[in-house]
Design a protein that fits this description.
The chain is built from two helices and three strands. With about 100 residues, the chain is an alpha+beta fold. Helices cover about 30% and strands about 15% of the residues. InterPro entries: LacI/GalR-like_sensor (IPR046335), Peripla_BP_I (IPR028082).
């Protein structure tokens, strides 16, 4: 089962256990975001670890560009958001394989 984030995966693992299912023997579970708590859960949680430094840099660059274009007022509110085009970014990631997907 692929979960939207690691915290949801923790809940899925608990719910499966409450229903008598075993992870990873019956159901394999993986989260996404790479929280460090996954290394301490039982079973340990496999995750897609997002490069948070790269994500933060991308967000700061976007904010800086908006400020430089004058699209943000002094309170941080967008003043002309309609002129902004959607931006797509590919942020780095890596698979951290742990017990929840083994067997």
């Amino acid at each position: 089962m692929f979960c939207a984030n690691d915290y949801a995966a923790f809940g899925v693992i608990r719910g499966l256990k409450d229903r008598g299912l075993r992870v990873p023997e019956d159901v394999k579970v993986i989260g996404i975001d790479g929280t460090s708590f996954g290394a301490y859960s039982t079973p340990t949680l496999s995750t897609i670890q997002v490069d948070l430094d790269q994500l933060a840099q991308f967000a700061l660059d976007m904010i800086t560009r908006r400020i430089e274009r004058g699209n943000v007022d002094g309170a941080g509110n967008a003043t002309d958001a309609a002129s902004d085009q959607p931006v797509r970014a590919t942020i780095g990631y890596r698979l951290v394989a742990r017990e929840s997907t083994e067997a």
